[in-house]
Amino acid sequence: IGRVVPSMYAISDWRRFQPYYYLENGKVVAAGMSYRDARPLATTILDFLRERAIVKYFGINIPAQTTQEDFKLTGAILDEMRNELRHKIGAQDLIVVIYPQSEYASYLRFELEKLGIYYIDFSPLNLYDYLAVHKIQFDGHPSPQAHEFLAKLINSALKNQPQFAKFFNWWVGSEFGIEK
Question: What is the distance of C-alpha 98 from the center of its chain?
Fold first, then answer.
């Protein structure tokens, strides 16, 4: 969600170059430019605020919270992604993986269910200690070991939950190398 609707800190770093999306009449519009280019005044103000000592001291971020509109936009983007996958590679559907301890899981599940998008929800899992140890140093992203661990969880979910059987059978033997 933070990659769809960037916050003050996000648009002040590398994410400022990400595409700018918004909903217009229920459809996703990709502005064809970065967030910084699409919203230059807002970006300048947020850059200025970010550098203020009081903002840093209190850890203030703008927007302060993610809104229902942000979840609708995220859901709409995932719905378009599902349609593209069906059209371009013949995928049966899209399965969204909700990361362990996601603070947005309940809101995202609501949007996904409304759109009929399948998901595997790992948000109840407390993997903080495991993932904290398995991060790329000075980067914060999960390490290859963490990705391998999550891949095994996903593989298990695909194998053992009946609603995913059709997806598992479609992926087996594909270029992705999932084994039965």
Answer: 8
